[in-house]
């Protein structure tokens, strides 16, 4: 962080650079010929747009939509800052493509109106903080769009107009952002405290604006260089144990604040890097690990016939995606057809259609490139981020396949108290679900959606993670590792002990995928004896049939069968089976609508204890195909399950002595005729004829 801290001298030096001054009233500006645009709408990019419009029907359709946005801005002034941002970029593109002065004049009018604002802050309460914040997310958007539009029409403006707009942009956005976030003399934010999506979006918006004002103010280049330098520090921030904050990114490209906030932060970074490359003709500073971000977005996606979704752990929503970030990578020359397939998968949600943005039309892939995206995804079926505690396992990459997502990482900010939680998608439906979230200002957001009870975890007396972690951060992260990926058996181990250590001494979730069956084996030890409960939040409807809970949504379904510590009773009354597992129902809340009640389930063993083992089988159902037969098996010092498929039998054994209860002695048990101290033993063989 040295370069972030030792900036006072640099800030002082910058203040000695003379600034442009507005001309006195009535004075005549000396007109100076302006260079052509150097950012998104530079001549080479516009030449390609014109070629695409002439030869590519889909590109022409997208151009027509953007021109309509520009025409609408001329006939009806845009309302609201985000609408103004879109209008500015559409007007700038329309002018460069058509050459019609009305579009340049429309952009000029909006630019002058925005420049005349006394304050560009859009979130007024921030100004009342101590110390006052002078910049916010809205300013990041405004800085970038204003800079891009100004660059595009600059050569049509009088010298006086240029001075007015540049002065307004510097005063209204660049300097407040540099002061708040970058320059040491006035900086109030640090990577330790605000170095997440806000930092990236706001700072890199100022970076685009700084590149745009370079021809008019020599400070623009220095500001852009400082932001380029800071981008490396932001991306590679290693976290702080003192401040209880995780690394911004894992070594595998996974982001610390879920998919939607990864997109906000990374698109802002990549737009700045694009603008740098366009303006400077050279690459910005190299960032270690930046080449991994696409893999993170792909791994957290679920292809559906009706449109892709992403894992919605934390505050992310299912339609969230990294579409704009992958479009940025494409624009920078990384022409991986999987990016196009991914972007197309989410394009049914208008806000996620990256190619509808005016700044992306110059990089719109041509017809042969789009055709290449029809091939299947070549990524692995299993993805694990050890640094962020995230796992995905899928049957394959075809639409509506089966996907299991598991989260066991860090709790703070946009991450919920969900260490060890899981989601299951099958046949295009979310069958085992995350409860989602509500508006951040609602009492239910903190009161329910972010709490452990709203997730598929195990609780003891209703507790898992302390609520204080949501603000303070979990001092010890959860982890996911020990991944095994073979054609017949896949395995991963999620350790949720750290975030739940107030109540648990041992909170391990073992995940085994065997054929058509997913096993969850929870190895638990609580600090005090209490009532354990295995929580199950579901989509669709859930119906108990015998010893199984059948979850159904349309033609999709999953059977959930608890095997240990006991099975559900096959019939009769609870009083007839005093030692059987109990199925209980709780009242939760619907995703994004706390006014609607949403039931969820729990498996409760009888009585209180301080040590427990849950073994639960999940079997996604496919029409016309019988599920494998599962049998509960147990012996001396072990429990297990036998899975009988069409042509293969697999037995999975869990060694009860290997759960930490023995010290200074071997934890040997005889399982499948093998004397071993293995924690888990799986034996698989073909069906005997």
Secondary structure: elements and pairs:
Layout: H1 2-5, H2 8-15, H3 43-55, H4 57-75, H5 81-98, H6 101-115, H7 137-153, H8 159-182, H9 191-194, H10 197-213, H11 219-235, H12 258-280, H13 293-299, E1 301-302, E2 309-310, H14 323-331, H15 337-346, H16 367-372, E3 382-385, E4 390-394, E5 403-407, E6 421-426, E7 429-432, H17 443-449, E8 458-460, H18 469-472, E9 479-485, E10 489-495, E11 504-514, E12 517-530, E13 532-536, E14 541-545, E15 548-553, E16 556-564, E17 582-590, E18 593-604, E19 609-621, E20 629-635, E21 638-644, E22 648-655, E23 669-671, E24 674-676, E25 680-686
Antiparallel strand pairs: 1-2, 3-4, 4-5, 5-6, 6-7, 8-13, 9-10, 10-11, 11-12, 12-19, 13-18, 14-15, 15-16, 16-19, 17-18, 20-21, 21-22, 22-25, 23-24
Helix pairs in contact: 3-4, 4-5, 5-6, 5-7, 6-7, 6-8, 7-8, 7-10, 8-10, 10-11, 10-12, 12-14, 14-15
Question: Which keywords apply here?
Answer:
single chain, 689 residues, alpha+beta, Beta-galactosidase, Chain A, domain 5, Immunoglobulin-like, eight-stranded antiparallel β-sheet, five-stranded antiparallel β-sheet, 18 helices, 25 strands, 24% strand
Shape: elongated
Average per-residue pLDDT, rounded, comes to 93
Topology-level CATH name of the largest domain: Beta-galactosidase, Chain A, domain 5
The whole-angstrom Rg is: 28 Å
Please give the CATH architecture of the largest domain: Distorted Sandwich
Low-confidence stretches: 1-30
The main sheet comes to: 8 strands, antiparallel
- The spatial strand order of the largest sheet comes to 9-10-11-12-19-16-15-14
Number of domains: 3
Number of contiguous helices: 18
Number of strands: 25
By secondary-structure content and strand pairing, the structural class works out as: alpha+beta
**Helix coverage percent:** 25-40%
At the first level of CATH, the class of the largest domain is Mainly Beta
């Amino acid at each position: 962080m040295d370069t972030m801290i030792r900036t006072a001298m640099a800030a002082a030096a910058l203040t000695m650079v003379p600034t442009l001054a507005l001309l006195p009233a009535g004075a005549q500006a000396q007109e100076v010929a302006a260079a052509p645009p150097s950012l998104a709408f530079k001549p080479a990019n516009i030449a390609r747009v014109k070629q695409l419009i002439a030869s590519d029907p889909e590109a022409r359709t997208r151009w027509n939509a953007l021109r309509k946005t520009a025409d609408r801005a001329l006939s009806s002034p845009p309302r609201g800052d985000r609408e103004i941002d879109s209008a500015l970029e559409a007007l700038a593109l329309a002018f460069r493509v058509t050459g019609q002065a009305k579009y340049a004049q429309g952009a000029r009018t909006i630019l002058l109106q925005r420049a005349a604002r006394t304050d560009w802050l859009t979130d007024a309460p921030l100004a009342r903080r101590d110390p006052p914040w002078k910049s916010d997310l809205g300013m990041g958007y405004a800085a970038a769009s204003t800079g891009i539009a100004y660059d595009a029409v600059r050569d049509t403006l009088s010298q006086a107009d240029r001075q007015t707009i540049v002065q307004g942009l510097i005063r209204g956005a660049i300097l407040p952002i540099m002061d708040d976030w970058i320059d040491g003399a006035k900086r109030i934010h640090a990577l330790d405290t605000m170095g997440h999506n806000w930092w990236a979006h706001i700072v890199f918006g100022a970076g685009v604006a700084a590149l745009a004002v370079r021809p008019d103010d020599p400070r623009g280049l220095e500001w852009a260089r400082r932001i380029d330098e800071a981008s490396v520090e932001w991306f590679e921030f290693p976290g702080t144990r003192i401040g209880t904050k995780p690394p911004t990114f894992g070594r595998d490209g996974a982001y610390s604040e879920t998919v939607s906030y990864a997109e906000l932060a990374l698109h802002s970074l990549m737009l700045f890097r694009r603008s740098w490359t366009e303006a400077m003709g050279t690459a910005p500073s190299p960032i270690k690990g930046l080449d991994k971000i696409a893999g993170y977005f792909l791994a957290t996606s679920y292809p559906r016939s009706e449109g892709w979704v992403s894992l919605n752990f934390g505050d992310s929503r299912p339609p969230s995606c990294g579409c704009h970030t992958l479009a940025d990578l494409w624009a920078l020359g990384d022409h991986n057809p999987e990016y196009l397939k991914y972007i197309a998968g989410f394009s049914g949600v208008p806000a996620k259609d990256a190619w509808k943005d005016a700044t992306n039309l110059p990089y719109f892939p041509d017809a042969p490139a789009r055709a290449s995206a029809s091939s299947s995804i070549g990524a692995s079926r299993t993805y694990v981020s050890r640094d962020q505690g995230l796992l995905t396992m899928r049957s394959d990459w075809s639409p509506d396949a089966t996907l299991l997502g598991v989260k066991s990482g860090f709790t703070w900010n946009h991450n919920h108290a969900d260490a060890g939680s899981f989601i299951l998608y099958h046949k295009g439906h979310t069958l085992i679900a995350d409860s989602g979230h509500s508006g951040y200002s609602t009492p239910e957001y903190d009161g329910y959606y972010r709490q452990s009870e709203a997730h598929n975890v195990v609780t003891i007396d209703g507790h898992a993670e302390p609520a204080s972690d949501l603000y303070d951060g979990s001092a010890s992260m959860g982890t996911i590792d020990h991944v095994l990926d073979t054609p017949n058996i896949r395995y991963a181990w999620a350790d949720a002990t750290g975030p739940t250590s107030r109540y648990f001494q041992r909170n391990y979730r073992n995940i085994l995928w065997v054929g058509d069956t997913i096993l969850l084996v929870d190895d638990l030890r609580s600090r005090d004896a209490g009532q354990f409960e295995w929580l199950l939040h579901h989509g669709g409807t859930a119906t108990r049939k015998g010893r199984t809970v059948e979850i159904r949504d349309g033609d999709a379904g999953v059977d959930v069968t608890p095997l240990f510590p006991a099975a559900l009773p096959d019939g009769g009354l609870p009083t007839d089976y005093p030692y059987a597992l109990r199925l209980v129902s709780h009242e939760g809340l619907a995703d994004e609508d706390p006014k609607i009640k949403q039931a969820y389930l729990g498996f409760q063993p009888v009585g209180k204890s301080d040590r427990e083992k849950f073994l639960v089988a999940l079997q996604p159902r496919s029409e016309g195909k019988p599920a494998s037969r599962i049998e509960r098996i147990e012996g001396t010092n072990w429990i297990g399950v036998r899975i009988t498929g069409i042509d293969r039998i697999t037995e999975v054994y869990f060694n009860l002595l290997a759960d930490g209860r023995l010290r200074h002695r071997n934890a040997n048990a005889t399982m499948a005729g093998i004397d071993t101290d293995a924690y888990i033993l799986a034996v698989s063989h073909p069906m005997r004829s």
